[in-house]
UniProtKB/TrEMBL annotation:
<dbReference type="Pfam" id="PF15916">
    <property type="entry name" value="DUF4743"/>
</dbReference>
<dbReference type="InterPro" id="IPR000086">
    <property type="entry name" value="NUDIX_hydrolase_dom"/>
</dbReference>
<dbReference type="GO" id="GO:0044715">
    <property type="term" value="F:8-oxo-dGDP phosphatase activity"/>
</dbReference>
<dbReference type="InterPro" id="IPR031804">
    <property type="entry name" value="DUF4743"/>
</dbReference>
<protein>
    <recommendedName>
        <fullName>Nudix hydrolase domain-containing protein</fullName>
    </recommendedName>
</protein>
<dbReference type="InterPro" id="IPR015797">
    <property type="entry name" value="NUDIX_hydrolase-like_dom_sf"/>
</dbReference>
<feature type="domain" description="Nudix hydrolase">
    <location>
        <begin position="138"/>
        <end position="279"/>
    </location>
</feature>
Length: 316
């Protein structure tokens, strides 16, 4: 179904309630916070919470303390122990096919933040496919690849997701995108994904400019997904064409921004990737306060304060 305006596009993604209604019977309001060091690091919906209670009570040494929230038991007192506790539980749930989300197992670890004892704020790491079960705040990179025509107009490279993709097959996407795995930096990830997804060589992808973040809190059948996407822009030189390489992209199109905007309103994009394209058009003066009545609300919704702990680094 097509959207009538861009605010609807954004609201379709950033849809987790901004305020919790404890009187509501809706599942989305009945979550249990996952906490560490008095900080909320995730949220757990009732179906996952029920299985977590069963698992915890079956252990001779329960790894969780379950009250009004969920915390790790006192003996689970290190990054390694927290990681192992989560892994052991996920391995069992995957084996028993407890949640369909785990069918998309990636063997890719995501960092979970909220540990003041460490310089990098790392609390533990978790399998990517399991992060939504706990409403863990995740981080990725998205690249807007574009060209500037002789008349000064901008055209954007748009990817068509492969039909074999397990999520959102065949929909439109940013030129390059990917989750930030444990130990990878944002720039390392964008360079890696440029090569794997679009055959863009390192000497070009390293010139990608970090231009900010897009944040939103969504949910799907997999669970809760508060996400931060680090956004990069890359103006491709004449003659450099992105080409599919790893099977995740079917093909690439070079489109005017008017066509990009129309395709977004026609609901042809992977939902969160449409937000990154909207952000690009706002930053490049295509969508402005003078031609978009919802300009401020769209801007707010593209930069939601998620309230979860974030990565920290000691810059030397």
């Amino acid at each position: 179904m097509a959207f009538s305006n861009l605010l609807e596009v954004v609201s379709n993604v950033d849809k987790f309630p901004y305020q919790r209604d404890i009187s509501s019977t809706e599942t989305i309001h009945n979550y249990t916070p996952l906490c560490h060091e008095s900080r909320v690091i995730g949220n757990i919906l009732p179906d996952v919470m029920a299985q977590l209670r069963i698992y915890n009570s079956a252990q001779s040494l329960p790894p969780f303390v379950i009250e009004n929230n969920v915390t790790f038991a006192p003996w689970v007192d290190s990054v390694e122990k927290r990681t192992e506790v989560i892994k052991t539980m996920m391995d069992l749930w995957r084996k028993e096919k407890t949640f369909t989300a785990l069918a998309g197992w990636r063997n890719e670890l995501y960092p979970v933040y909220g540990n003041s004892a460490r310089e990098d704020n790392l609390a533990f790491v978790i399998e990517r496919a399991a992060s939504a079960l706990f409403g863990i705040s995740t981080f990725g990179v998205h690249l807007n690849a574009y060209v500037t025509e002789k008349d000064g107009s901008i055209k954007m490279w748009v990817a068509r997701r492969a039909l074999t993709k397990p999520t959102w097959p065949g929909l439109l996407d940013n030129c390059v995108a990917g989750g930030i795995a444990y130990t990878y930096s944002t720039k390392e990830t964008i360079v890696k994904e440029c090569d794997e997804e679009a055959s863009i060589p390192r000497e070009i992808s390293e010139k990608a400019s970090s231009v900010g973040c897009v944040t939103y809190y969504t949910y799907t059948s997999a669970g809760l997904q508060p996400e931060t996407q680090y956004v990069f822009d890359l103006e491709l030189p004449s003659g450099v064409l992105p080409k599919p390489q790893d099977g995740e992209v079917d093909c690439f199109y070079l489109w005017s921004l008017d066509k990009v905007k129309k395709s977004i309103l026609d609901n042809e994009w992977k939902p969160n990737c449409a937000l990154v394209a909207i952000d690009f058009m706002m930053r490049h003066g295509i969508i402005t306060a003078d031609n978009e009545p919802d300009y401020i609300d769209i801007s707010y919704r593209l930069h939601r304060n998620l309230g979860f702990p974030t990565p920290t680094k000691c810059i030397k």
